[in-house]
Amino acid sequence: MITVGQGFDVHELVEGRPCIIGGVTIPFEKGLMGHSDADVLLHAVSDAILGALGLGDIGRHFPDTDPNFKDADSLKLLEQVWVMAKERGYRLGNLDATIIAQRPKMAPYIPQMVEIIAGALESQPQKVNVKATTTEQLGFTGRGEGIASQCIVCLIADVLSS
Ligand SMILES: Nc1ccn([C@@H]2O[C@H](COP(=O)(O)O)[C@@H](O)[C@H]2O)c(=O)n1
Ligand SMILES: C[C@@]1(CO)OP(=O)(O)OP(=O)(O)OC[C@H]1O
């Protein structure tokens, strides 16, 4: 059986916060604002998996009103989401994600992001694709006010036929 899900997230870029994307701390003059560490890519990945499972979104499972998730490591949240997928018998088919940011340049950090996401999903890096695009200086991402990410995921459950 195959199920697919998609995720989308946005976080504001502000001064005085670390810029953590895909589990990688990227040297940059600004960072992402959020209740958690605001890892916009891992949030989109988590939402895509939860969508594929029909389980809502990360805000439902990890509310931003809960002090337990203040400055939470989004990789740990993704690992908890992955437990939900495994409990239902799923493994990763493939995942494709896009980071939408004018700056910083993501390309040097993408291989590390892929390794981190594949590790969290107990899968091979070949099944995880992460890419980046600017918006040609248009819109809130183009003005550097925030960073967005989107992700689509395919999960597979092997069912025995009789
Ligand atoms: N924050 C970003 C945005 C883009 N890239 C890479 O640059 C290439 C060109 O981007 P365009 O928006 O002009 O298509 C793109 O292929 C990305 O690989 C990046 O590293 N970081
Ligand atoms: C992750 C959570 C929880 O700390 O907080 P934020 O970092 O604000 O992120 P958001 O993308 O709004 O998603 C859900 C939240 O509940």
Automatic annotation (TrEMBL):
Site (Transition state stabilizer): residue numbering on this chain: H35, T134
Keywords: Isoprene biosynthesis, Lyase, Metal-binding
Binding residue positions for 4-CDP-2-C-methyl-D-erythritol 2-phosphate: 9-11, 35-36, 57-59, 62-66, 101-107, 133-136, 140, 143
PROSITE patterns: ISPF (PS01350)
Short name of one Pfam family: YgbB
Record-given protein name: 2-C-methyl-D-erythritol 2,4-cyclodiphosphate synthase
Entries under PANTHER family matching the protein: 2-C-METHYL-D-ERYTHRITOL 2,4-CYCLODIPHOSPHATE SYNTHASE, CHLOROPLASTIC
Cofactor: a divalent metal cation
